[in-house]
Design brief:
The chain is α+β, with helices and mostly antiparallel strands. The protein is built from 5 helices and 10 strands, in the order ββααββαβββαβαββ. The strands form 3 sheets. A 6-stranded mixed β-sheet has the order 5-6-7-10-8-9. Strands 1-4 form a two-stranded antiparallel sheet. Strands 2-3 form a two-stranded antiparallel ribbon.
Amino acid sequence: MAEKFATRLIFNQTPHVLRQNMAQETDVKAKTPDAKIFIPTFTTRNFNQLTSTEMKKVISTPDAPAAIGPYSQAIEANNMLFVSGQLPIDPATGAFASDEIKGQTRQSLENIKSILAAAGLGMGDIVKTTVFLADMSLFGSMNEVYAQYFQGDFPARCAFAVKQLPKDALVEIECIAAR
């Protein structure tokens, strides 16, 4: 078993410098005594050798629809949360919450909100969304509901029409959030 040690790290270091410091067991605090620090614990193994399971975490909640295929509701990696596309399925019933775009958009966003909450995040932590629509004529109505879920700065967004969505939904929304 590898011995553990504490390394002090500066928040604004680039990943490359961070890896060098960790690999060399450098005490950054000694070089920069006024720096804000945190002290994580790592094994003496080089940071570059961490496995993918050590760098990512599956996020799942019963408050959003279960994945209907070989994917996760969300994956957290490097302080980023990647939320899979959310159909407008009500997790309590397993059916679409509505037959119209506004209701479906609301349910897709509520599903995202539940997944974010399971990861300890909120809608304000979203940095990017992608909206898939069954038809671009639905954009205006979707956008009315979408705007109600964000305050202040809106996340970056792509929105486009696709040939067909799973289960013939009118909308599917995925997002990326940051801690």
